[in-house]
Design goal:
Length: about 160
């Protein structure tokens, strides 16, 4: 379960992780939303109804086979609690919602950080897109990083150099 500091443990993460077979097909959404909070923009944002909830205060459940990796739920989540992961073509990539104004550029080298903000690797920005956020009047930046494969469950943030 969640540590007292609110950071999910690796057991939490791996208990809700797509199979390697699914990751090899391309981007798929994973959530790190484990608490019983009344919230559901992720459910509403999904065009293929891949996210469900038993009730409004239940944690979301993502159907990895239905998910197309579009990123709408990542941009819509007010808790910044959804990410996209991929192992397509053998490249380990994570897509992270980014709310700062100093948006990185494609090709930029950055520091890959774990959930505590500790540097765990060198990473490279391979994609930057903007998608409509929760209120539909603004957009959320989604930054995709290429990272070492073994750190796919670990890297969830980055720092520009
Ligand atoms: S990435 Fe797109 S298809 Fe996948 S769960 Fe999120 S909104 Fe649905
Ligand atoms: S939108 Fe984000 S915070 Fe809200 S239920 Fe979905 S994953 Fe959790």
């Amino acid at each position: 379960m969640l540590e007292m500091d609110g950071v999910p443990t690796l057991d939490d993460v791996m208990g809700n992780f797509p199979s390697e077979e699914r990751l090899l097909k391309g981007f798929v959404a994973v959530h790190e939303c484990y608490q019983d909070i009344p919230c559901n923009p992720c459910v509403e944002s999904c065009p293929v109804h891949a996210i469900s909830m038993e009730k409004l205060t239940s944690p979301p459940v993502i159907d990895f086979d239905k998910c197309t990796g579009c990123g709408n739920c990542v941009a819509s989540c007010p808790g910044l609690a959804i990410f996209l992961l991929s192992l397509k073509n053998g490249d380990a990539q994570v897509t992270i919602p980014y709310e700062m104004i100093n948006v990185p550029e494609k090709g930029e080298k950055v520091d890959g950080l774990d959930r505590y903000g500790k540097k765990v690797c060198d990473a490279q920005v391979v994609r930057v897109v903007k998608l409509p956020s929760l209120d539909k009047t603004s957009k959320t930046t989604l930054v995709t990083l290429e990272i070492p494969r073994e750190l796919l469950p670990v890297v969830r943030s980055f720092r520009r150099r």
